[in-house]
Amino acid sequence: MESMTLLNEIAGTYPDAISFAAGRPYEGFYDVEQIHAYLREFCAHLRGDLGMSEAAVARALFQYGDTKGIIAGLVARSLAVDEGIEADPASVVVTVGCQEAMFLVLRALRAGDRDALLAPSPTYVGLTGAALLADLPVLPVRTGETGLDLDDLSARLRQARAAGRRVRACYVTPDFANPVGVSLSLADRRRLLDLAEAEDLLLLEDNAYGLLNTAPERPPTLKALDRHQRVVYLGSFAKTGMPGARVGYVVAGQRVTGGRGGSVLLADELSKIKSMLTVNTPPIAQAVIGGKLLAHGCSMAAANRREAEVYRRNLDHVRDGLRRRLGHCPGVTWNAPTGGFFLVVTVPFTVDDELLAYAARRHGVLFTPMHHFYGSTAGHHQLRLSISTLTPDRIEEGLDRLAALVTERLPRA
Fold first, then answer.
1. Which of 42, 52, 263, 409 gives 46 a disulfide partner, CB atoms 3.0 to 4.6 angstroms apart?
2. Distance of alpha carbon 203 from alpha carbon 35, whole angstroms
3. E strand or H helix at 233, and its extent?
4. What's residue 205's pLDDT?
5. What is the per-residue pLDDT for 413?
6. For position 216, what pLDDT does the model report?
7. In this model, does residue 1 exceed pLDDT 70?
8. Phi, psi of 118, rounded to the nearest 5 degrees
9. How far apart are CA 2 and CA 350, in angstroms?
10. CA-CA-CA-CA torsion sign (300, 305, 311, 316)
11. CA distance 102 to 375
């Protein structure tokens, strides 16, 4: 839980260091006027499409609002347009970033000390942090070259049940997973859904990066392929809308047993927890995201075409730069994701927080030691590079600095 604080402290101490550490969206297209334009767009939607009076429009923006959110209908429309997901707006809960969505789901699933969660190893630190707060142990599943190892998933599930654990769900990021950047094939997506149905397993699908794909055809999400209500869908507008708005959502249309024994939507149970946690997601932040959706026909894929091209360009640039600088170095390799923000470099020496501080101080370059994503149990010879925020010139200079660090360490290795 201290890993993000550590990275921020080092970045603050060495502000001139070139950072491959932060997984933030590209900032080159930011314009403050967009915020005002999106607010106007959303207010026009409230007046025109929903027939609200001026007083009602003002109330919608200034007051607390529905715990489930005031843009649940627009979120459902965007899922239909971009992903082919038919979601009832009643199954959508708009959250304070995807981080809250994760915590709400994990807290709702946690019912006793036997409960546990399966997740890839390595995995996103926000997931492990949310699970820690929800008191839900995370059981690691091996990650292969194309994502979650489904054979290992089956084995881990059997082992956990044999040990008396009740596995509540499996967290998975099928597209450009943080931190390794790999994606599940269509065949493995179908196989994972079949496994979930056969084993009565819930899947928590995190899709923060799936829309940032420049391939001619994007693979369908697990949720789009799901025919048996096995998938709870975790979404975020941090990468596609604007991170400063802090708006995410969860789609949870499963029927569960309510407090009085009746059947209710899982989304309704999540909203009860949210009402005690954050009350509601700020309506003004929702309005900005809603306005951006409306301005682009409820398609975040369309809204992010320029950004997706930047990420593809940067990823190609980093891979080519690594090849030119380090391709001849023994024991130095890297993976080859086709999209997203991240790739992983493997080196024959120890990569820890001490090396990160030295890299910032001596060479002026930042990265993320991979051991943070393993809970410090592995990854001590790997580092994650984020390609999302840099220009080509900064990438070139940053890779020069990184190569100087690597070649300096190789003789010792």
1. 52
2. 35
3. strand 231-236
4. 98
5. 67
6. 84
7. no
8. -90, 140
9. 20
10. positive
11. 18
In sequence order, what DSSP letters do the residues of 328-341 get, joined into one string?
Answer: TSTT-EE---SSSS
Interhelix angle for 54-62 vs 283-295, to 10°?
120
Would you state the structure tokens that stand for residue 394, as one six-digit string?
Answer: 């900064």
For residues 326-334, give the mean pLDDT. 96
pLDDT in tens, 80-122: 999 999 999 999 999 999 999 999 999 999 999 999 999 999 9
The tokens for 177 are 């997973």
- Length reported for the chain: 413
β-bridge partners, 365 = 18
The pTM of the full predicted model, rounded to 2 decimals, is 0.96
Q: Give pLDDT tens digits for 114-157.
A: 999 999 999 999 999 999 999 999 999 999 988 999 999 999 99
- Name the strands in the sheet holding 368-369, side by side, starting at the edge strand that comes first in the sequence: 333-334, 342-346, 382-386, 368-369
CB atoms within 10 A of CB 364: 19
Residue from 76, 56, 57, 79 nearest 68 by CA: 76
Q: What DSSP assignment string belongs to 212-228?
A: ---SSSPPPPHHHH-SS
Do 181 and 335 touch, CB atoms closer than 8 A?
Answer: yes
More reliable by pLDDT, 161 or 10: 161
Give the position of tokens 């403050």.
32
- Strands 115-121 and 138-144 come out as parallel
DSSP character at residue 91 = G
Q: What 3-state class would DSSP assign to 249?
A: strand
